[in-house]
Amino acid sequence: MNTMAPFATSVAGRDDLASTVAFDVWWAGRQKANRFEVERIPFAALDDWRFDPESGNLGHTSGRFFTIEGLHVAADGAQGAATWHQPIIHQPEIGILGILAQRFDGELHFLMQAKMEPGNINTLQLSPTIQATRSNYTRVHRGGTTRYLEFFRGPGRGRVLVDVLQSEQGSWFWHKHNRNIVVEATGDVPEHEDFHWVSLHQLRRLLRTDNLVNMDARTVLSCMPLAPSGGPGEGAVRAADDPFTAALLRSYGTCPRNGTDPGPPLHTTTELLSWFTEMKTRSEWRTRLVPLSGVGTWTRTDDEITSTDGSGTFRIIGARVKAANREVTSWTQPLLAPLEQGRAAFLARAVDGVLHLLVKAQPEPGLLDTVELAPTVQLPAAGAGGRPVPFRTEVTGADPDRVRFDTVLSEEGGRFHHAQTRYQIIEAPQDFPLDVPEGFCWMTVRQLMELLRHGHYLNVEARSLLACLHSLW
Amino acid sequence: MNTMAPFATSVAGRDDLASTVAFDVWWAGRQKANRFEVERIPFAALDDWRFDPESGNLGHTSGRFFTIEGLHVAADGAQGAATWHQPIIHQPEIGILGILAQRFDGELHFLMQAKMEPGNINTLQLSPTIQATRSNYTRVHRGGTTRYLEFFRGPGRGRVLVDVLQSEQGSWFWHKHNRNIVVEATGDVPEHEDFHWVSLHQLRRLLRTDNLVNMDARTVLSCMPLAPSGGPGEGAVRAADDPFTAALLRSYGTCPRNGTDPGPPLHTTTELLSWFTEMKTRSEWRTRLVPLSGVGTWTRTDDEITSTDGSGTFRIIGARVKAANREVTSWTQPLLAPLEQGRAAFLARAVDGVLHLLVKAQPEPGLLDTVELAPTVQLPAAGAGGRPVPFRTEVTGADPDRVRFDTVLSEEGGRFHHAQTRYQIIEAPQDFPLDVPEGFCWMTVRQLMELLRHGHYLNVEARSLLACLHSLW
């Protein structure tokens, strides 16, 4: 496997084992050291959080952090028309999700953090080096400074490898986007006890562990160019164990840029962009923030905001956190709690020996530009109402032999309570049609990676799955 | 010149003259044939347009077309903080700006339209083949069908060369973006009398005529890839008359993609994207639509909405149009009338023999993602208040010998009344500093063209200037 890992120069075996043991020891130590508890509380017990008497919106008395507001959606598109209200999280500031990188013995390593978030089902998850809203790092809540911030901002920062604004959950956040940044440090980097250097190779393996690599780490990793050459070489393709892996590896290199051109993508980039423009044009969703008190199909009790007609897929609750290693040691906050585990799956098949992913143009009410590229199947499906979700049975009923990746991972624990998604990459049968419904399009990994250099293209679930896909070689 | 025109295979001279005469005859004929008059009217005389009694917003009784609403802006960024209210045009539908292309004798030609718009200072301007809001082509206003629409939509359309959503004036429109599309027709195209085939070569020359090529045509043209190879060849560079033109031609080819690499760009694409991300992150502008009646610093009389404190740069008026060749023969509508002529200028200088343009990251309140790339100087400057505008004197006081392009062109006459902008490309002195303030960045033409494949990057004034720049070779 190691020959296929870009940037990797060390040999697999003893070093791998040693680094795995070192990681496990560090991780176990962090779990022991970080005592905390999270308990559900009624809204009245939230400190400094209040329902605005006029709008009914739930916000912090400082006017910062985030608010829970109402959203009205009139969705009119290819899938049909629907109208609904829902609560949504409004956080009008750009945060930083930053991973610090450094080369050891020629191999790129990432400084990952053991970080507690109140909504995490297992409290600690492997997180970016920094994961901070502007309120965090400008110290609105009077906590400590944000560690390692100086490597990402200001004149002393290192070489930028990735720096792009990307969206987050479009059904739960209003116009949220965060800065996804990877910086290669040039000087010495102190290793605080909550932080650990992990190689790219190791990080990919860790992605296969349930609820370990957090959402913020996954989205930053997905944006990371995989190798200076843009993908694995011919040697790696020849060494692949099976046709699926060979097709996957070729899928990273179908752009002329890296010189190996085993078969053209099914669609040119001009065609993909035109299809995406058409999908945006057809999807006429009108969205607007409204007072939460005006959201008639939802009701507020002492300890939750919940849908009264069964249409809601989440509820809003309050929580109190006590922890030793956060910027402040105790706080309360609202959380959005999904009612069910989500699902995000890409169907994939080889075309002329090159793996293509079946991408969906998915409108989501909170996305700034409404439509982004999503996995083939994403559940719950925004705006689907009672209509059937295309390719659902192909995913849920897939032959286990064809399921190439299958891991339950968590969404942002700073805002969501126990939000888990089952991420899957499923090999479609070779007779699976290339001619697909108009909202869908086959793309190579290389094509998706090129789009990922820019914002407004891949939604957060598609980005997570792309990070998972990288772990398959 | 002709050897430098991409796609061109014919020889300059007699053919050029013949096509110029043919264009002039057609244009004069259209001016004679199209009788119309535009008169200013009080708001009470607008048919089917009403001020909403509650919000004070001005809208059409059908609920479609567009509304004039209020906007609140809290601008907090590198340039300082400011807060203001203003009216803004809200048109929540994606229109099509489409140019139909076809090859004659190997040379690409565009089917351009002689089109009247109520706000045009000279009534007819050279426009895209189709220029239609969704209301137009779904026939909300019960007019005729949109000519040539079938070449852009549906199964019979030709080969798509360009298809991208691009923004429009961020100080005047709320979240407006239109589909910029160029389609190469494969079959026969009837030439209606208001339409004329114009070669790319000819079209570039016409861009140097004041108020002839309209805004919509300019933005579509700017997105057009210039040649299959991506730029002019080495031969064209060697044949250039002067160092400025040679540097300009090289600026199209500094990306590895076309194989000629005379000198690297000053910044890599990764660096440009990171700078732009940083600029977006720093610019914390909060904008929200508010009722027009709540905009206290503006007042409404019988026939205009105007700013009371002198801060406004435009007013809202009413107009009645009578015309023979529009979809409907008479109508009334509001228009936004700027108080002064605008200005948009790029400062340009060669770096290692390659022309670089000085691009500004400019927040504008109506842009969907707030910040886009703008000309070096754009007046009036959104959010500048009384502060000095960087590089203003370098533009207004430029040595005439260094002004390489200088033409007054009109903005969208369907919404703006007599809105003119002086577009300039100015060669900066060779000792002009490469080290520029943080809101500015030097980019090659090729780098800008790559970004133009995607939305949310270049604002409409920068796109217009890029189209003008193409006319310089």
TrEMBL record, chains A, B:
Molecular function as annotated in GO: lyase activity
Domain dTDP-4-dehydro-6-deoxy-alpha-D-glucopyranose 2,3-dehydratase: 23-224, 270-469
InterPro entries: EvaA-like, EvaA-like_sf
Superkingdom field: Bacteria
Pfam families cross-referenced by the UniProt entry: Hexose_dehydrat
Signal peptide region: none
Name the record gives this protein: NDP-hexose 2,3-dehydratase
Organism: Streptomyces sulfonofaciens
